[in-house]
């Protein structure tokens, strides 16, 4: 088994999906979390001067979604065939688009009132098209498992769970819940949340703002 080290800040952030993959797979890794004041002295050690970074047997590779995909494939969590993998990749791209086109605008806005307006606008004008497609994909999985694809948990389930958790916690400060009134997504969130390895990690992991 390779030696794994995951480098990030003291938060869930863009490293949390990789942590969830490790935990669901039951694979040990070193969870290295730098404090803000420690980061400058380590920045030059990272491929692009940013985190998260995954070190595999001494080789450092960056980019959060690439890390999550790699680990999921290594641990058998990327579907059982190419079509399932295709649907999982689609979900990755959906959440990447949501982040790039909508959520980063809210994050970087300095005016708190404007942040709240942008969050409400995202819920009212844009969120539905993405969530409708995600629900459609869930319904298309006729295996009866309740998972995003196939009959077993995949990184797609972990991605959807992690995104719902993070977005609800963050957008909740503006009293915005984009998942409100979507029982299918609620059921899926609960399904993943009670997986033994995930439930244990969520209970034990450090409590952070992001």
UniProtKB/TrEMBL annotation:
UniProt domain GST C-terminal: residue ranges: 81-210
GO MF annotation: an example: structural constituent of eye lens
Keyword hit for RNA-binding: no
Residues of the GST N-terminal domain: 2-79
Classification via PROSITE patterns: GST_CTER, GST_NTER
GO biological process: glutathione metabolic process
The keyword DNA repair is annotated on this UniProt entry: no
Cross-referenced PANTHER family: GLUTATHIONE S-TRANSFERASE
Family to which this protein belongs: Belongs to the GST superfamily.
Protein name per its UniProtKB record: Glutathione S-transferase
Organism: Dreissena polymorpha (Zebra mussel)
